[in-house]
Amino acid sequence: MKSKEIASLVEKYPWWSEARLHLARQEGDASDVRNRLIARLHPLATISQQQIDVKRLTRLTDDDLIERFLRHGNYRIVADEGEADDMATPEIEDAEDMVSEELAEIYLNQGLYMEAIEIYRKLSLLNSEKSIYFAELIAKIEDKIEKK
Question: At CA 71, angle to CA 67 and CA 73, rounded to 5?
């Protein structure tokens, strides 16, 4: 490791004596002759303790605050007062818009191969990043149809 990388580790984790020892071996501090001597003579020796910034080590991140909030109790998000949207019945404009891999697998299990191929073609158009995957599935189904 380079001295700069080790120095950043020592700065980030001041309690890690091995990193401080390694840094003292590599660079050494002219004002700290004792640490340099210990680092050279005794490879397992620890360097004298430095002051640790406890606030920095115990500072909570945003994720820590959210996790603590959710763990604490029975919290829930409440909508503003007024009329609530009716979410009980989903609005489906067209039954043809309902496509999923699960639906295609159901069609396959039922022996409805052409319907499954149609679903996979629609999914291929909707998910261009998976188009090769869907093309392979379509080819397998078409091979299965030809063998029958």
Answer: 135
**Helices and strands (H, E) in the chain, number of each type:** 8, 0
Q: Torsion angle of alpha carbons 25, 29, 34, 38, nearest 10°?
A: -10
Rg (CA), the chain: 32
pTM: 0.37
Task: Compute, in degrees rounded to 10, the torsion defined by CA atoms 123, 129, 132, 133.
Answer: -60
Instruction: Please state the length of the chain.
Output: 148
Domain count across the chain: 2
Instruction: Express each pLDDT in 134-144 by its tens digit.
Output: 999 999 999 98
Task: Give a yes or no: residue 103 inside a domain.
Answer: yes
Range of the domain at 128: 95-147
Q: Evaluate whether residue 15 is within a structural domain.
A: yes
72 belongs to a structural domain: no
